[in-house]
Structure of Branched-chain-amino-acid aminotransferase:
Amino acid sequence: MSLQIKIEKTKFPKPKPNQDNLGFGQYFTDHMFIMNYTEGKGWHDPRIVPYGPIPFEPSTMVFHYGQAVFEGLKAYKTTDGRVLLFRPRKNMERINISNDRLCIPPVDPDFCVEALKTLVNIDKDWIPEAEGTSLYIRPFIIATDPYLGVRNSKTYMFMIILSPSGAYYPGGINPVKIYVEPRYVRAVRGGTGYAKTPGNYAASLKAQDEAHNEGYVQVLWLDGVEKKYVEEVGSMNVFFKINGEVITPALEGSILPGITRASTIDLLNHWGVKVTERRLSIQELYEASENGTLEEAFGTGTAAVISPIGELSWEGKKMIINNGKIGELSQKIYDTITGIQNGRLKDEFGWTLEVK
Ligand SMILES: *Cc1c(COP(=O)(O)O)cnc(C)c1O
């Protein structure tokens, strides 16, 4: 795909938000990237235009049947003023895996990384600089045919929008309390669990609501068939350190293959820490908790990087992990990944890509 990106800069740059109060996903930069797909023509008209509303007919297919995929990654400003992306090609490879599951035509990952770099470079003044802050990047694709029949759309839009975001842990890393969901399921093998698609999130809201009402921050999903095996948490993969060994659920089609998950496994292997991808039952986890061998538990994902789990509640039984404090290994993984992301540590793995 050798396409030229047309650039139309805004005539009305917006004031930047207060950097101390960014939160997540509330502010958007001055520009966005758009490209269209038309059957028979392929992806065309890549362009960067001022950020703003786009008109769609009410019959637009994505509103009705949810044929859509998305990605999430971040750009970081280093202390010496460089701008780094973390493994962006992985996101563009993964969007094609999601595309395949949702019958959306594939994109050229290299071209999309180029588009991403060009957009971030144009809006680089929006990247916040305080410790822990970043520019969240949201690429997504939606079905755009104005049509109510159930079939694949023949037209699509690929867009990238950017959102300056605050530190995930403004007051220092805080382990979270998590509710093991006994009733609802997120995904089943053979379903769309491994794809990053909005429907998976729509299906998760009810359990999330009920967990919130019980005082829990997130839901730990069990497998959709037997409700026995641990799957993942909200928008994070999960890891457990039991008796010195790190265990994470294997990718069997119902779990999202996280890039932070892959990076964590690479780091553990590099450090010589035993890490195993396999099925892990909630009963096994409970027994490990009871006999004192459950040493650490944490989630991994772009937003938090590492989110330590201090408590799990399963059918009224509580598992308190590491006295509700972050574990040593969790902290080391967090420090290493964030250090590579913000340029303070040497990037031995070639994970970062500089935007310039
Ligand atoms: C995006 C996502 C993750 C984490 O993936 P990363 O690439 O590490 O950000 C985990 N689970 C779900 C359901 C997700 O959507």
